[in-house]
Amino acid sequence: MSPRKNRRAVSGKPPQGGGGGWAQRTEDGPDGEWIVRSIAGAAATKAYRCPGCDQEIPPGVPHVVAWPADERGGADDRRHWHRPCWQARARRAPRVQRSRNAPRY
């Protein structure tokens, strides 16, 4: 038996979503318009810090990369999020880092 060949879409164009295990889309939210890229686990090769929960996203874990759509800053504005953290960003308050003896008000 011969090995299976990769097949192209019927129109002759490659499938949508780009290559490398990611798909990109634009999302509108209460905090503005964002370009969001879903990263597959196989394409996640580095560890990142999620701004939503301040936990590490280890290599091999599928996640989301998002940056503001109005600013084409690119790599400087991109943030890697856990998918649930990205979906819950409007319901969460920003995490404030305080020193041990700082007042809580």
UniProtKB/TrEMBL annotation:
It comes from Actinomadura physcomitrii. This is ATP/GTP-binding protein. Residues 1-10 have a biased composition (Basic residues). Residues 1-31 are annotated as: Disordered.
